[in-house]
Amino acid sequence: MAWMVLVLAGIFEIIWAYSMKLSAGFSKPVPTLMTVVFVILSFLLLSYAMRTLPLGTAYTIWSGIGVVGAFLLGILILGEQATFMRILAAILITAGLLLMKLSEPS
């Protein structure tokens, strides 16, 4: 259950990062409100997952989901560049997330 909650927290992190971009420096009310709501939800779910998952693992997975998710969203929706180095960096981050998950005792 903690892993599912953690993944959801990571998805909410992607949403708040995207809505922060849309808020144009918090000058637009609806994206600003979305940012605040999803930041709170993301942190609440992360803290819930940390009840049973180790700090290092939970925080790494949560932030990694947000980083890679925001990167992909930037490319797919915002038209940001998909250079070799950026894609390689995302692959390395994803590999680190997988290694972190695999290092957890069953």
TrEMBL record:
The keyword Membrane applies. GO terms for cellular component: plasma membrane. Keywords: Cell membrane, Membrane, Transmembrane, Transmembrane helix, Transport. Pfam families: Multi_Drug_Res (PF00893). This is Guanidinium exporter. It comes from Acinetobacter terrae. The lineage of its organism: Bacteria, Pseudomonadati, Pseudomonadota, Gammaproteobacteria, Moraxellales. GO terms for molecular function: transmembrane transporter activity. The chain crosses the membrane at residues 33-50, 57-78, 84-102.
